[in-house]
């Protein structure tokens, strides 16, 4: 157990998931394989939010990460026993509904009477969208500069990224489990540190250190050897890769490590790859709580699978919060077929031409259509160079997107016929017709902080 | 001077924010960072990617981590679920950049040759079992 009540102490925040769909066993391993103080999980990629919005539209009780509820049923008894507290943005677009289900899961696990549950809400801007627009906030697209009015009638959800203080508040009020909706990923780690160390809102360097810790922690095993490029072949035992544990100190300095017997690797190389992941200007990484300067950070080896991170600097946050607005962008489908030697690429290209001509003759119109050859240039484009000589096989991948569902639907019925009516030596159609999916488009916008205030509701309740 | 591939000098990770890709490039050897900082200009990266990147490439420096961060706007065909690209989230733009040829002193070329690839290098055949 950690020492409480002053003095030098470290707090161990275990990252146990980088997206909804990450290793289901990771949180269990984090709890079972060694001592930790907090278990934190990030479930909300932008694409995930769009799925959750759709689910809630169909069923008002849905709209959260259901896997989290099953996980809590599994690990809550051990967490409560060992004093491990859980923070997750599993609430998605329905944190209250998620918390209700966690309460039921706790009861099923036999710990219902002992669980204190915190819920952070207030990120949902949808009910206030028209009020904001009427108030003169144009919610212009941060990438294109267009005002939101151009797509207002197609908006299906709008959430603002909250910071770490509401999480700290829920912990301060005794929550064993904190369920949030949309918040910045780093807040899941920063929140517990704010609570444990009592860092003030204007203690910008320490807040920035917590953001760096959260950024390292937020993608699960991506900082412990997963998806790590440096000498990837030498990283041991990825089948039981250890997820990150942040050992944070009151000063803001922290060590990145993992459970001793787990697989993977924590080295300056694996941690640096994660620090530079999905950032813009590293000297100004904006969050609701602080603008963090990653360029001041220093890494040093601190033993096997231990990297010490020091030196983060911070500045006051801006007056703006980022909102992610989801709107319907039409329909899409992707169809694939595999062509074999000889002339694999030439056959695949010929098939794509045949398909295009048929779709044209049917009078189908799409906003975009593209054909790629997987196995040659579908990821590196022209940089892949000429097709490999005498290529053994290639996968033709044809994708379309358009505003009319019927046209995209018809496209999905034009792939299989190519097997008997197009170029030869083709296979790989066994998965059936491609699925038509709705396109959830994103509209990043800035919202003035004061226009969202008060945007947080925290409740801690006995389950 | 001799040409090596960037993959022999650095490792990298890339990801997305909407229609924007970022690529963090990290020198294997801290002493090679100045060489990378001098060679890997935003213009050079822009030229490398050509039509794959429609916006203007911006470069940021992280000398403490001997890393450079490149931001590539309008590179993902709209990004997210709008994009029809195979790599709609820019996950392997990193290795596309590491294909770049970099001129280095002969002495460095001799030391880094083959780095960044699974040994034994060079691979005899991509498709061998």
- What is the element string of chain B, with H for helices and E for strands? EEEHHEEHEH
**What would you call the shape of chain A?**
globular
What is the chains' assembly state? heterodimer
Separate helix tally of chain B: 4
Q: Major β-sheet of chain A, in short?
A: 10 strands, mixed
> Which band does the percent of strand residues of chain A land in?
15-25%
> Widest sheet of chain B: strand order?
2-3-5-4
Unreliable segments of chain A (pLDDT under 50, ≥5 consecutive)?
1-7
Shape of chain B: globular
* Average pLDDT metric of chain B: 93
Low-confidence segments of chain B: 123-129
The tally of helices of chain A reads 13
Number of strands of chain A: 19
> Helix fraction of chain B?
10-25%
Mean pLDDT of chain A: 94
**Arrangement of strands in the largest sheet of chain A:** 11-12-8-7-1-2-3-6-4-19
Task: Classify the helix fraction of chain A into a percent range.
Answer: 25-40%
What is the number of beta strands of chain B?
6
Major sheet attributes of chain B: 4 strands, antiparallel
Largest interface: A-B, 56 and 49 residues
Distance between the termini of chain B: 36 Å
């Amino acid at each position: 157990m950690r020492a409480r009540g002053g003095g030098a102490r470290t707090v161990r925040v275990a990252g146990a998931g980088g997206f909804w769909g990450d290793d289901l066993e990771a949180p269990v391993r984090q709890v079972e394989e060694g001592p930790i103080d907090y278990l934190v999980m990030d479930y909300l990629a932008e694409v995930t939010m769009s799925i959750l919005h759709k689910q809630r539209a169909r069923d008002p009780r849905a709209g959260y990460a259901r896997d989290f509820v099953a996980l809590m049923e599994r690990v809550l008894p051990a967490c409560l026993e060992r004093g491990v507290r859980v923070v997750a943005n599993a609430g998605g677009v329905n944190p209250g509904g998620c918390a209700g289900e966690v309460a039921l899961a706790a009861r099923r696990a036999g710990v219902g009477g002992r669980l204190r549950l915190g819920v952070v809400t207030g990120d949902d801007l949808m009910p206030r969208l028209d009020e904001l627009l009427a108030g003169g906030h144009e919610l212009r697209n941060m990438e294109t500069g267009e005002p939101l009015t151009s797509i207002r009638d197609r908006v299906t959800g709008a959430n603002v990224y909250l910071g770490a203080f509401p999480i700290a508040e829920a912990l301060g009020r005794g929550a064993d489990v904190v369920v949030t909706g949309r918040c910045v990923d780093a807040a899941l780690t920063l929140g517990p540190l704010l609570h444990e160390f009592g860092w003030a809102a204007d203690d910008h360097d320490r807040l920035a250190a917590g953001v760096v810790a959260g950024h390292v922690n937020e993608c699960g095993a991506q900082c412990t050897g997963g998806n790590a490029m440096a000498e990837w072949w030498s990283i041991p035992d990825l089948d039981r890769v250890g997820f990150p544990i942040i050992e944070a100190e009151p000063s803001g300095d922290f060590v990145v490590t993992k459970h001793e017997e787990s697989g993977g690797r924590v080295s300056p190389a694996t941690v640096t790859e994660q620090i530079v992941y999905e950032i813009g200007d590293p000297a100004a990484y904006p969050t609701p709580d602080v603008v963090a300067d990653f360029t001041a950070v220093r890494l040093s080896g601190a033993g096997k699978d231990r990297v010490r991170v020091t030196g983060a600097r911070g500045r006051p946050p801006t007056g703006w919060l980022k909102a992610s607005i989801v709107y319907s962008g039409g329909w899409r489908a992707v169809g694939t077929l595999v062509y074999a030697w000889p002339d694999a690429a030439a056959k695949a290209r010929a098939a794509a031409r045949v398909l295009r001509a048929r779709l044209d003759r049917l009078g189908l119109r799409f906003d975009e259509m593209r054909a790629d050859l997987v196995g040659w240039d579908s990821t590196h484009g022209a940089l892949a160079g000429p097709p490999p000589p005498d290529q053994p096989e290639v996968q033709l991948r044809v994708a379309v997107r358009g505003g009319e569902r019927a046209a995209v639907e018809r496209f999905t019925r034009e792939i299989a016929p190519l097997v008997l009516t197009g170029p030869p030596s083709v296979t790989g159609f066994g998965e059936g017709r491609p699925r038509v999916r709705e396109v959830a488009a994103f509209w990043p916008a800035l919202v003035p902080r004061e226009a969202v205030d008060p945007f947080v509701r925290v409740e801690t309740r006995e389950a | 001077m001799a040409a090596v591939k960037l993959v022999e000098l650095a490792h990298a990770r890339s990801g997305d924010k909407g229609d924007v890709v970022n690529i963090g490039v990290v020198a294997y050897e801290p002493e090679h960072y100045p060489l990378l900082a001098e060679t890997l200009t935003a213009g050079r990266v822009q030229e490398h990617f050509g039509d794959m990147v429609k916006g203007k490439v911006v470069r940021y420096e992280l000398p403490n981590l001997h890393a450079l961060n490149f931001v590539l706007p309008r590179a993902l065909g709209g990004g997210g679920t709008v994009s029809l690209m195979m790599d709609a989230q820019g996950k392997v733009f990193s290795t596309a950049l590491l294909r770049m040829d970099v001129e280095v002193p002969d002495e460095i070329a001799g030391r880094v040759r083959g780095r960044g690839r699974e040994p034994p290098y060079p691979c005899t055949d991509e498709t061998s079992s």
